[in-house]
Amino acid sequence: MHLVPAQNPSDWDSAAEGYAELIAPITGNFTDQLLSAVNLSPGEKFLDVAAGTGTTAISAAKLGATVTAVDFSEAMVELIRKNALAAGVEVTASVMDGQNLNLQDNSFDAAISAFGLMFFPNLTRGFKELYRVLKAGGRAVVLADAPQSDDPFAQVSGQALLKVIPSLSEGNDEVSAGARLAQPGAMEEYFTNAGFKNVQIQTITSEMKIRDPEQFWLKLGPALPPLKPLFNSFDNETMAEVAKAFDEVLSDTKVDGVAIVNLGALLGKGTK
Length: 272
Hints:
Elements: H1 9-22, H2 24-27, H3 31-38, E1 45-49, H4 55-62, E2 66-71, H5 74-87, E3 91-95, E4 108-114, H6 123-133, E5 134-145, H7 152-164, H8 186-194, E6 197-210, H9 213-223, H10 228-232, H11 236-249, E7 259-271
């Protein structure tokens, strides 16, 4: 099976520090909505799959949950351990493939995967593994990229790219690995086929504040493996032009020099 960079642990290992600096603060803004959706209570056993730098896992631990966090990237798991220690909470962090969890059946009250499961080569296995490790009545929440029509950040990014490279709009109907759950009805179908009941899907947003859009864009590729194939196709001059265009597209959103744009996400939840 051919794996794209978003599906290779070595690419996430290489990106881990940049991801922690640039991306984790953005995706972490969804943490309160995630924990509210999964209805987490103190004392419950909580699992975070593809946990990244551990933002949600650490917040769950602060709420009094017993937390396990797994990721297939060793560098990310090291960051989870480091961040949990700095936060003064206990999180059991392990290197693990979310498609083949080395965890017992029926052992967690709640489980989430935020912007992680959506990249799995085998989405069916990812959802079925969440279902398997949950107790009867356990809750799962999956957060994934929203369709571009519901994601203002994706829209302005696309505008910047097309200003510099108009040919990107031509004839590519292939769905990227990370966009599969954003297809109409897809997330609900995966939840239902895995056995979940009471499935609900909604679009949510979180505000992004970007202090220097040009620098943000230039750091984005190295920090986010899913963008690696596209960004590696640009020479330095093209990349600089797109970064400038990104700043220009966001110019009307700036408040005191800080660009403000919403990031859209698709939140799905279900019960075992």
